[in-house]
Amino acid sequence: AGRDHGLALAAGGSVWSWGRGGWGQLGHGDEQNQLLPKKVEAFVGPRVVAVLAGGCHSLAITADGAVWSWGFGDYGRLGHGDQQSLALPEKREAVAGQRVVAVSAGGGYSFAITADGAVWSWGCGGFGRLGHGDEQNQLLPAKVGAFAGQRGVAVSVGGVRSIGLTVVG
Asked: Half-sphere exposure of residue 144, counting CA atoms within 13 Å on the CB side?
């Protein structure tokens, strides 16, 4: 569940959303609220294996390890290199070639872990929440250098804080 919306992943890989749609975070191509779960038609082809609802944006991982994002684009939280909002899911090209195995979405930012154990973050950098040692916003996914030499296995983010779990070596 996100701030004002929810996502569900059905056994067959279809994605359903409901709640506030004010920034397109429901993925239906509009900004309408949904009082009942509605299927996100953009995922008719690719099979989704994970979904995450953040603060006004949403993320999905497809079976091929690609990350899709949609919703409010401020701070670069969608990871597309700009701050444009998207009312339909769009594949992020910034991590092309990298198989993503986990994602987490916070208030204005996002994290991912790739199959090689690298931890990536993007979006609002205020309070150092991206883990890059500064407060700069990241419009594209950037590796979190503090995890170099370690294998990221899980990450969880909230409104203004992040936590990661690694295996050393």
From this structure: 28
Q: Which amino acid, one-letter code, is at 23?
A: W
Encoded amino acid at 1, one letter: A
Letter for the amino acid at 167?
V
For the full predicted model, state whether its pTM sits above 0.70.
yes
Classified as helix, coil or strand, 75 is helix
Is-contact 129 137, C-beta < 8 A? Answer: no
Torsion-angle region of residue 119: left (phi > 0), alpha (psi -120 to 50) or beta? beta
The two three-digit tokens of residue 64, written as one number: 């091929």
- Taking only the tens place, the pLDDT of each residue in 47-63 is 899 999 988 999 999 99
Question: Identity (one letter) of the amino acid at 4?
Answer: D
Q: How is residue 152 written in tokens?
A: 């990221």
**Type of residue numbered 57:** H
Strand ranges across the sheet with 57-62:
48-53, 57-62, 67-71, 86-91
46: burial class by Cβ within 10 Å (0-12, 13-18, 19+)?
Answer: middle
Shortest CA distance to 69 belongs to which of 97, 34, 108, 126?
108
Quick count: other Cβ atoms within 10 Å of Cβ 134? 10
Q: What's the DSSP call for residue 145?
A: G
3-state class (DSSP) for residue 43? helix
Residue 73 tokens, joined: 């684009």
